[in-house]
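Our preliminary data section would be incomplete without showing what the modeling component actually yields. Below, a chain of 184 amino acids is followed by its predicted structure, encoded as C-alpha cells that our downstream tools consume directly.
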Amino acid sequence: MSEKIQKKTIEYYKQGSLYTYVSACNKYMKQAKQVAIEESLTPIFPIGVVIVKNGEIVARGANGNGYHEKNLNSKFHKKGCKRRYISQKLLEQGKTKLKSGEGFELCPGCNYDCHAEVKAIDKLKDKSILKGSTLYMYGHWWSCAECWKKMNTVGIKEVYVVATFKEKKNLIKWRKEFNKIDSI
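Predicted structure:
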C-alpha cells in the first residue's frame, strides 16, 4: 500500500493546497518526531518538522520560543498565551472568539516566526535548496496561512502529516506522551 494515504484540501484558508497523510512510522516522520522531542520549546503543543530534498534532510525545526511557559501564571494570559486570553475575553463579552489559525500575531509565543515550518526554513541561508523539497510535520495536522505562504515562496512542493492526527484524540495522546518524555 502506498504511503500516500489521502490528500485533503485545506479548508481553513481555502488555498487549495494539499497535505499528504502518512503513517507515523514513515522514516522522515520519525525524524520530525525526534525534532519535536529534542527541540520544541512548547511542551503543551510540541511540533517538529524536517524538510527533505532528494532523499536527504536539509533542514529541521521545532516550534516555540519559551514565551508561553514563562507566562503561565501571568494575569493577562491563558495557559501562558495572550491569544487564548483575548479569545476568552471576547467570549465573556458575548463576541466571537478568535478562530483556530488566526491571531497568531497577537501573542509573542504564537507568532509565525515561532512555528516549526518557519524556523526550519529560516535556518537555511540558501533558501534555493528548498525548491522542489517536501516537509514532514509531526505534532499537528495543518499549517497556518502564513506558514503556507512561506513554504510556497521557497518552493516546498508537498507537506506530509501524520494521518491519525486528523483525530484530535490522537494529537492529545501525543502531547501527553511528550510531556512524560519531557519530564524525565
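Confidence is low (pLDDT under 50) at residues 1-17. DSSP finds six helices and six strands in the chain. Preliminary results of this kind motivate Aim 1 of the renewal.
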